[in-house]
Each structure stands twice: as C-alpha cells, then as structure tokens.
Hints:
The complex is a heterodimer.
Chain A: H1 2-34, H2 38-43, H3 57-65, H4 69-99, H5 104-117, H6 122-135, H7 142-166, H8 170-178, H9 183-212, H10 215-220, H11 229-238, H12 244-264, H13 266-273
Helix pairs in contact in A: 1-12, 3-12, 4-7, 4-9, 4-11, 5-7, 7-9, 8-9, 9-12, 9-13, 11-12
Chain B: H1 3-8, H2 23-54, H3 67-74, H4 76-110, H5 114-129, H6 132-143, H7 149-157, H8 170-198, H9 202-210, H10 215-244, H11 247-252, H12 264-273, H13 278-302
Amino acid sequence: MRGRALLWRVVALPVLVAFGLVYLFPLYWLVATSLKGQGELLGHIVPTLVPQAPTLEAFHTVLVEKGNWKLLRNSVLVCGATVLTTLTLGLLITYPITRLPVSRRLRVGVLNWALSLRFLPPVAVVVPYFGVVRTLQLYDNPLALVFIYTLFNLPFSIWMLKSFLAEVPLELEEAAFVDGATRPVSFFRVVLPLIAPGLLAAGIIIFAFAWSEFLFALILTQTPRAQTFPVGVQAFVTQFNLIWNEMAAAGLIALLVPLILMILARRYVLAGLTFGVIREK
Amino acid sequence: MANLGDSMHPALPRKGGRGGLSRQERLAYWMLFPVLGVIFCVVTYPFAVALVQSVTATRGGKFVGLLNYQSSLENPLLYASLKQTAIYAAIVLPLEIVLGLLLALLVHRTVRSSWLKLVLYLLAITPIVIPPVAVGVIFRLIYAPNYGVLNHLLIMAGWIHQEINWLGQPYTAMLAVASVDIWQWTPFVYLVLFAGLQTVPRESVEAAQVDGATSWSQFWHIELPYLRPLLLLILFFRLADVLRVFDHVFILTGGGPGTTTQLLSLYLYRIAFKFFDTGEAAALAVMVMVGISLLYSFITRLLPLERD
C-alpha cells in the first residue's frame, strides 16, 4: 500500500509539472508580450523570451490613444444590464415552478426547454435576429445586445436559481404566512436574503458569459457607440499590421475581467458551466 | 433537497376555484404565463422569420418554394464544413476526455494538501473563463508565422530549421485550432471528473484496497461506474460546444487556408454575412435548428439528468 502510494507520487510529479509548464506557457507569453515596448518588438527578429524593459506602453496605447475605453465602458454597461434583466426574469420563472404547486409536466417542460437552448448554435440564430434587429432599428445599439444576451443566459439562470430556491425550506415561508406576511413580503424578507449569495454568484457568471460573447456583438454593432470590447480585440488581430504588444494587451484586458470575477465566484463556476447539473462539495 | 417541493405539490388537493385550481396554482400561472409567453414569442418569432426568409428570394422577396433549400443542399461546401466539424470533434473530444480523466485520477490519487488542490482548481478554471477572443489572441501569438513563438522555440531546440506556417497549411491549421480547444477545455473535463472522484465513497475504495485490488481494478470497478454519468454529461456539453465553435477559429484562421478549417458555424456565417445570401442562410439556419433539436432530443434521453 505505502509503496504503491509512493510510486503514484513519483510518477505523478513530473507528469503534472510537465503538463503545467506546457499549459501555462501560452498565458505567460500573453503577459510577457503585453509588457514589451514597441522598440523591443522591432529591435529583435527573434522574440525575447523575457521582456527586457517591461512597460505599460501597450496598455496605454490600447485604452487611451486608440480610445478602446469606450468599448470597455459599453461592455460593462451591456453586461451589467444583462445580469439585472436575466436574474429578474429568471426569478419570475423559477419562483413559481419551485415554490408553487404547478404540475410536474410544466416544471420539467420549462427546465428541459431551457436546457435545449444550450444546444442551439448562436450562428444559426443570429441570421434571423439580424433581420429582426434591423427592422426594430436597433442595429448598432447596445440594447439589442442586452436583449439577446438576456435570452441566451436565461436558461442558465433558470437552472441555477431553481437549485438555490429549492434549498430554501418551504416551512420558512409558511411560517412567514402564518405570521401574516403576504407572498411578496415573504419573498423579499425570507427567500431573497437566503438565496442572495447564490444570486450574486449567478450574476457574476452571467456577467462573465456576456463579457465573452463575440459573435452577436460582431454582427449587431458597428461603431464604438455600441461595440463591445471583444469586438475591439478582434480588430487588433485581423488588422493588416499586427502590433503584437498591443494585441496582447487588449487580449489581457479582455481576460482579466472575467477571470477576477470567476475567481470570486469560484464555488459556483462548475455548476454554472454545466447548468447546475454538477454541484461541487 | 430538490425533492422538498416534490413531496408537497402532487399531494395538494385540487380544490377551490371554478377551474379546479387552487389559489396558489392560479398565482403560479399568473406569474409564469406572461413571462413565458413573451419569451416564447421572442424565441419563436425569429424562427418564423427564418422560415419565411427561407422560402423567399433574397432580392425581391418573391416566394420561391424550396429553391433556397435545394441550392443550400447542393453546395459542396456545406458537406465539407460538416466533414471539418466531424474531424474537429473527432480530434478534440477523445483527447480532452482522456487527458482530463488522466489528470483527475493523477491529482486525486496523489495530491493531499487542500492548498495545492485550490491552486490547481484556480489554474483549471482560468482557461475556461477566458473570452474565446482572447484565447484567439494568445494562440495567434504562438502560431503566427513571423513573431509566433512556437517556431522560434522549435528552431532554438534544433527540431526544425525553418519556420512552419502553422495556420497556413491545411493539416497543421486544423491541428492548431483543435489544440486551442484542447488547451481551453481539458481543464473543464478535469474539474468535472475530479469533483466526481471526490464523491466516490471512501469505504468502498478502502474495502477494495484491503482486498488487494490493484490501482487499475480500483479505477475500473469502483471509480469508473461513479464517473459514467458525468462522462455522459461532459460529452453532452462538449458536443454542444463543438457545434457552436466560432470565435477562436474565426480569429486564428477565419476558416482557411481555403476552407480547410471552415466548421459549420463559420460556413453559416460566411453564407449569411459574406455572401449576404439571406435566403440560403435562412434555409441553412432552419435545417441546422431542426437537426440540432433532433440531436438534442435523442441525446437527452441518455442523460442522467435530475429533471426537477
């Protein structure tokens, strides 16, 4: 027994370290490139593995000189609004199906329908939506994005909220009714405080999902008035002259926001990615 | 916990109201139906639009019957894109699952410190939460012909003598975009399976060890049965994602060189927004939606889902 455990460890360590190095290198390279100055990029035909003179020049250029802070602002606004609308609608749907006596068929139907949306390739949906958005004159308007992101995140929020709500004992609410509370009062005083941490985590995950979305933002926006940050990042990559440090800086900014948020909500991330089907702990 | 509601609701007597509904039930429907109704319309409307578009001519909007369907089905590029998607899935899914399973087992068997587990956890969620666009950027920095670091590392190591245009040749381009998927999603498989391994009851593992089971039979007879439903779920979510893959391929190769990495999503995008063939794009969208719904209803039957 002891011997076997030791053997596992002797084998495991080098394998894990090797995996770790290969796996971390791309991230290291992004950070390293973003810290290089223009001079260092042009001065070396072979890229330097470690930035010789680390500088934040690229970040300054990307955000201030090239005005991408506007896209950053759009992203924050769009994602924030998406979180609010998605959670509100999600609660309006999950509260009745988890805490009121609806038929099992309706409940399962709603949940299944929500899961089925996970399978829909956005690119198939974007074609008809493009037409609809044009007709409603919402092209190049952040509202169109909020609208669509809400729709696409709603299924996830339904599955998450359903599992949070199911964990609040019905007895607690019933006790509140006995004390003369109306349903809205008991919801805001009893249920909401209990699910608040979960709600916050779901909000963070929705924010990050919306933050990462690219296809709809690419197709439905055109100017810095409505474009989101990923669209700006993409512009750095597909432009003719590749300015590597700026491209890396833009990429790094794009990933830092969701990364920080997800670390805050780390207990719920897995549940989020799998619609709450897999719970941790 | 989820059963709490269950045990109450079906037992409730159907008394009260004229429609045979209790007050609570009526409240539930009053809350649900407006929201669900609006969402239903919002989801269905574009589908209806797509149906209409698919049977009308792109310019002029005259009714053309199934002409758009016919022309989209006659386009050999459609079948090429289906083939590319299948190749992509065939590279990506098995590798991610096998690697993720290996890593999960390795860490589960050897790592005891909870501090180290947390570090591994944070490392593993990192690629998953990175926006696909940023992932595209990262791998442009690696595979690009001139500044790409992979070529320089390989030249420094003496393995190659001149730069390889990874994204510019059919085979390497497909491998490159697949490698990105593997880099990004193997950690997800690892996380799910690792979480699953934690739920295997200690007693059965210890009993097996007392009986002298080898590591292999411990895995095969005790742990794998526990992981089986999770493996199915992983397959479900990853398959759904592979059918949607767009962002990183768009940024790395744009579907090229030629059409060798033009997966289904990129093909649809090209028809709709490069060729502006609304009719054909709508016909394709309708067919994809119907096809995927069928696939979905088939796959969910196999899933160990807790449905309510």
